[in-house]
Amino acid sequence: MFIINNRIKKFLIAMLILILTCIIFLASGCGSDDTQKEANRSDVSINFYTPTKSPEQTPTPEPTPTPVPDFEAPVLYGVVKRQFYVGEGISYLSGVFATDNIDKDVEITVDRSSVDTKKAGTYEVTYVAKDDAGNSTSQTTTITLSEVKVTEESLHKVAQEVIAEITNENMTFEEKLWAIYKYTNSHLTYWNSSDKNDWRAEAYRGITTGFGDCFTYFSVSQVLLNEIGAESLPIQRHGGISRHYWHMVKTEQGWYHFDTCIHRPIYNSFLRTDAEFEAYTLKQENYNPGYNYFTYDKTGYPAVSEIPFEWDRDSYANK
Q1: Residues 6+ apart with CB under 8 A from 39
Q2: Rounded to an integer, what distance in angstroms lies between the CA atom of residue 248 and that of residue 259?
Q3: Which of 42, 125, 149, 189 could potentially form a cystine with 201 if both were Cys, beta carbons 3.0 to 4.6 Å apart?
Q4: Could you read off the pLDDT of 262-304 as tens digits, one per residue?
Q5: Neighbours of 259 (CB within 10 A)
Q6: The pairing of beta strand 107-111 with beta strand 232-236
């Protein structure tokens, strides 16, 4: 039988006590750690981000523009003397237009209350242009009604024949203008007589007989310009010891003077500027004093282009 002495017993007892102490310590430590961890877990709050929907943005309204004060009246153009015929329609607004500093479209009214369309004579008519702000301007001119001597159909027929002869569909607008200039300038022989109260009769006379004065040249030009759809305005010399007539014609480059009549000294008056006509007028004062050759009242006419019409005169001369 194994006998344990007292020294060994004491050692074993001490070891047993140490082991039990460790077990108790470990047991109590683990328990408190778990409890603390559990407590810590219960204190933890987890916040999840939930995006909130932003309110719809209301578009900022455009600021209302402040109205620009408008005290400037429109400007009328093309209010010039014209001739029409008894019993035929009168195109009061043909060639008449207005511009304004603000409004794009300007209303134009015509007071024609004095006109008796059934009676030959000269009548006053007044044109009024009015913008949206109520500003208005007016101009008064005269129209002459003549008895019909040559019908519009008769004149149209002979004019069409001329246009068919001197132009073709491949020509530019300016080339057609040049063809009209050359035809009228060379076809007519200057003869100091015309019926200045009947441009239609003079145009017919000029085409069919080849004779007439500056008003005849003007009248032939007028009907031929009408045939090609040219926008033109009639001009009459202002002052001077004799009358003279020509046109202002609109091209892509602007308005230009267009006079098919012959001149002495010789002068090509095809699509000229004011400055060019004024220079020739000064030259004429030395040749024909007192004629006021190309002097005209610019009231009612659009501004003529200040840029000389660009063209090859030699090239045009051969067309």
Answers
A1: none
A2: 8
A3: 149
A4: 998 899 999 999 999 999 999 998 888 888 999 999 988 999 9
A5: 27
A6: unpaired
Residue range(s) occupied by CATH 3.10.620 in the chain: 152-317
**Closest by alpha carbon to 252, among 302, 309, 176?**
309
Q: Which of 244, 237, 257 is nearest to 181 (CA)?
A: 257
The answer to whether 249 touches 228, Cβ cutoff 8 Å, is: no
Beta strands 211-212 and 189-190, pairing class: parallel
Return the closest-CA partner of residue 167 out of 156, 188, 181. 181
Three-state SS at 121: strand
d(CA 145, CA 243): 20
Return d(Cα 309, Cα 297) in angstroms, integer. 22
Residue 230 structure tokens: 């040219």
CA distance 131 to 195: 40
The CATH architecture assigned to 75-146 reads Sandwich (2.60)
Please tell me the distance from the alpha carbon of residue 167 to that of residue 110, in angstroms, as a whole number: 37
Which amino acid is located at 72 in the chain? E
What number does CATH give the domain 152-317?
3.10.620
- Whole-prediction pTM: 0.72
In the chain, which residues fall in CATH 2.60.40.10? 75-146
